Amino acid sequence: MEESKKLKDELMLKDSTVWERVDEAEKEQIYDYCEGYKYFLNNCKTERESTQFIISQAIKNGFISLDEAIDRNLRLIPGSKVYVNNKDKSVILAVIGNTLIEKGMNIVAAHIDAPRIDLKPTPVYEEGGLALFNTHYYGGIKKYQWVAIPLAMHGVVIKNDGQKVNISIGENENDPVLYISDLLPHLSKDQMEKKAAEVITGEGLDVLVGSIPYPDKETEQRVKLNILKMLKEKYGIMEEDLISAEIEIVPALKVRDIGLDRSMIGGYGQDDRVSAYTALTAILSVENPMHTCLAVFADKEEVGSMGNTGLQSHFMENTVAELLVLTGNTGEIYVRRALANSKLLSADVNVAYDPLYADAYDKTNTPFLGKGVVLTKYTGSRGKSGSNDANAEFVGAIRAIFNSSGVVWQAGELGKVDVGGGGTIAQFVASYGMEVVDCGVALLSMHSPYELSSKADVYMAHKAYSAFYHNA
């Protein structure tokens, strides 16, 4: 018996939770750390709000903008800290290391967009005595989850004169909220016979915004007119201004502790703001590193990393080129060398085993809540399509770093083969030739309006990214 126990401890994977493997002092650190995370989730429900928060924290910790460094012709030296704001929707933080950038960087890359509902360019219309916003959903959602819940409106409007107007309605407890209606059970016979994907259609996600008509009975579309009048009075905007706007409809739900033991967190946008927050706190702790460290916070991952703020753009590549110039190296070859020699953690979430839907998982290769940050060697679907599939050597190196740094981690896939699948930014950044592996927190109810994470896993993600910055 004693010999078999010794062999088991030596040869088999550890199956205990974070809570069983940390002492009381670290348990307190887990709870304390997650209070900051909850604040971030409550106050950063869009990529623009996340960018603003990240930059504010960076400035408090001694970072200066790259534009300022360029304007002042500053030479960046080991320990220098800079940030790059890309159109207020993505951002990079960099801490210059003691080795040449061309020798490679340690990079953690997360995304700060999340599934949501966007307004169409001409959104306001009236039907049946109600004013509504016409919408187009963003990212992979189960549309039926977004009806009959309180919703908030966040975003920016660019007026004809170029003025930017920020909008946030529905977060303050005294604010009104918005709403998407559903059909009552008494009349739902035909609806209930549809497939889940068809119960609510994309065009059926229009948002209810008002019902009081403008007083002039001779005017048409009086409820719409009254809503436009209110927007004019509060924000100084007209209907045409909404064409040059980015308005997002998100759940008006506050982050709460989940469970009688308060061990979990419920809230919107944890895919992937859990990785963004933990990457942020990790890089803010970096001082005078061996290798230059980057934290990348990207937009558009949920729709394929497209556009000039997603990681299929040259945003990260251009930033590295600028850093090289300010550290004394110029030329495209240095950019190529720097990227090819780098190591990157694709900081994105995975799925946690859910006993209520056990048939969707290969239990021996699925992450579990509370068992630590997840290493995901490959994602993709239909035979790893759209996956990076990390090299064994790099996975081994990351394992060694985590094991030597007290990081509780686990390995896992995104559900059973051929059941579904998904992708991350890993495949795009790997095209530079750098070593990349996915590493993040396992969630329940991913892409729903109210996702769930384990506080223990959130803290271990921070600890994992910190260990990577200091030891890779």
TrEMBL record:
Enzyme class: hydrolase
UniProt KW Cell membrane keyword: no
EC numbers, comma separated: 3.4.11.-
Entry keyword annotation includes tRNA-binding: no
Protein species of origin: Calorimonas adulescens
Pfam families with a match to the protein in the record: Peptidase_M18
Listed NCBIfam families: PRK02256.1
Cofactor: Zn(2+)
Protein name: M18 family aminopeptidase
